[in-house]
What does this fold into?
Amino acid sequence: MSITDEIKSIYLAKGKNHFDEGSVTQLSHALQCAQHAEIANSSAEMITACLLHDIGHLLNNDARQAIRNGEDAEHEHIAVDYLQSWFGPAVTSPIRWHVDAKRYLCATDKTYFSKLSKGSVRSLEVQGGPFDRQEVASFESQPYYKEAVQLRRWDEASKSTSTATPSLDHFLNFVSQALI
It folds into this structure.
């Protein structure tokens, strides 16, 4: 089975699970995020990163319970560990840093926290809260941090229950293009 077939299988099997945002599914959230990237004329790698940024939630059967227990499920690391054999850093780095990008934005953009969903506020607490000055500087030294920040903004804007998107197969075309 190819990695694109495997990704499709994961999303079809587990993507109907509700995101920690009420009635938004994991699949709908992923498609909305990828759609934001496509509308912005992003690269195939960035569209792929947006589509797959939360796949770690689908790969970890205990992710939702961890958050309920006040623990960080580290879904971004699970995703990168899974994806790094097929994708380069233009895909995996924004995924790796998208949680830190939330912490970064909460520290550097005074309006960002007010845009967080309830689930993102809850997870922010277990992920360490907003960055301090040293953490901001360290984050800004990471390759692809700007892409991670953009992914994070699209991530937060991708929690609608009524947004129409192209199909998963449409975005899997970008995934195929982004393979190393």
Observations:
- The radius of gyration is 15 Å.
- The CA atoms of residues 110 and 121 lie 15 Å apart.
- Residues 3-178 form a domain with the Hypothetical protein af1432 fold (CATH 1.10.3210.10).
- The chain has one domain: 3-178.
